[in-house]
Amino acid sequence: MNVHLEIEQISELKWIGKIGNSLVCEFEYFKDETGRIWMNDIGTHQVKKKGYGTPMVIRALEVYKIVYVSTATQRDIKERDLPDDGRYSNEPDFWIFIKKCVDRGILKPEWIKHPFKND
Fold first, then answer.
1. Across residues 81-108, what is the average pLDDT?
2. How many angstroms separate the CA atoms of 49 and 97, rounded?
3. What is the pLDDT of residue 66?
4. Measured between alpha carbons, how far is 63 from 58 in angstroms, rounded to an integer?
5. 71 or 49: which carries more pLDDT confidence?
6. Does the pLDDT of residue 57 top 60, yes or no?
7. Contact partners, residue 78, CB within 8 Å, separation at least 6
């Protein structure tokens, strides 16, 4: 069975993916003070490993051109007294997904970076 994922940009930095009337994934991005776009919060709704994340990133890249992924840790956040708003993930599934995107050439390795260190 071939399903069609409908991707919709619902605000400047938020995207949803639906199959029919069912919401299956949400991706939110963050724009820093320099204008760079960072992957902020990604979520799937009971459909992990169905392949919906990849087209969501590809579609966002068509608009943003570059999407950065932060390697900052929870400690980095606390040291700078920043809000824990989802930009900094230590979840294994997130990093497996990011690695697949890099391996497939969707994300470039130089886009995976520490946001508080000089370029």
1. 80
2. 9
3. 96
4. 9
5. 71
6. yes
7. none
Smallest CA-to-CA distance from 116 within 83, 77, 65 is with: 77
Asked if 77 contacts 84 with a C-beta cutoff of 8 angstroms, the reply is yes
- 79 phi/psi in degrees, rounded to 5: -60, -30
Q: Is 75 helix (H, G, I), strand (E, B) or coil?
A: helix
Q: Which amino acid is at 24?
A: V
pTM > 0.85: yes or no: no
For residue 96, give both structure tokens.
């497996």
- DSSP of 21-36: TEEEEEEEEEE-TTS-
**Distance, CA of 49 to CA of 92 (rounded, Å):** 13
